[in-house]
Structures are given as C-alpha cells and as structure tokens.
C-alpha cells in the first residue's frame, strides 16, 4: 500500500475492505471524524489510485457450482506486459498477480465447470510468451476474517 497514507487512511481502507458498502455516516462514527472528512478521503483515495474499485464478496454457497483454481505462470524472457495483456482478455481470470521466485504470475480462475476450466487452461497455455504453468484446483476455503 502507498506509504503516503496516514493512520486515518489505513483505518478507512481497512474498514472498506471488510465492508465496501458501509455508509459514510457509519465510517465517520467508527473512525471518529466527520462525514465530510470520510467522503473527501474516499474521493482522494480513488483519485490517487489507492482504491481502484469496489467489489462484491459472495458467500461460498452462492459460488458452490464454480470451479476455482490457482494457476502459476512462467513467462518467456523478462517482460511480462504482453502476457498480462493477453491474460486480461480471459474473463474467467478473476485476479492476476505478479510474484517472485519460480513463477512470474499467479492467476485466480473461476469457471462454471471442469470443461470450462480445461478450455481456459488451454487458452492460457497457448498464449504467446508463456513458457510453463502449473494449476491447482481449490477444493475448499477457510475465511480468515
């Protein structure tokens, strides 16, 4: 996270991570500041790119039919930009992370079925610039919150 954030920014972002729909009034009360302060902070955090969007988390039961997986990707050469651009075109990739070590990228996949996952993996593996990949299907998840 950006080092220019002060304690209030960090606490605000933390609360929004837990509940992105929490009202400005409740945030202000919890943080001990005015609603105007919260609204201006959120606006600044969005404008500066610290907050890049708001999303919905669904209960595991709502996504029970989804097949989820993590795919580690090794990129040919040193520049992963073209590979990342190609992976962004695959709608089943829910998130994409750069990393260090043996793998250059980690993709979080969410598919309707195993057949759909197979198709996504085929598309991923045939993308120019991908040297190797390894996929693990996620069987269950435990919340840490």
Can you describe this structure?
It is a single chain. This protein is α+β, with helices and mostly antiparallel strands and 145 residues long. The protein has helices at residues 7-18, 24-31, 35-47, 81-88, 114-125, and strands at 67-75, 93-98, 105-111, 130-138. It has a four-stranded antiparallel beta sheet with strand order 2-3-1-4. β2 (93-98) and β3 form a beta hairpin. The model has no long low-confidence stretch (mean pLDDT 87).
What is this entry, summarized?
By secondary structure, the chain is of the alpha+beta class. Helices cover 37% and strands 21% of the residues.
What does the secondary structure layout of this molecule look like, with pairings?
Elements: H1 7-18, H2 24-31, H3 35-47, E1 67-75, H4 81-88, E2 93-98, E3 105-111, H5 114-125, E4 130-138
Antiparallel strand pairs: 1-3, 1-4, 2-3
Helix pairs in contact: 2-3
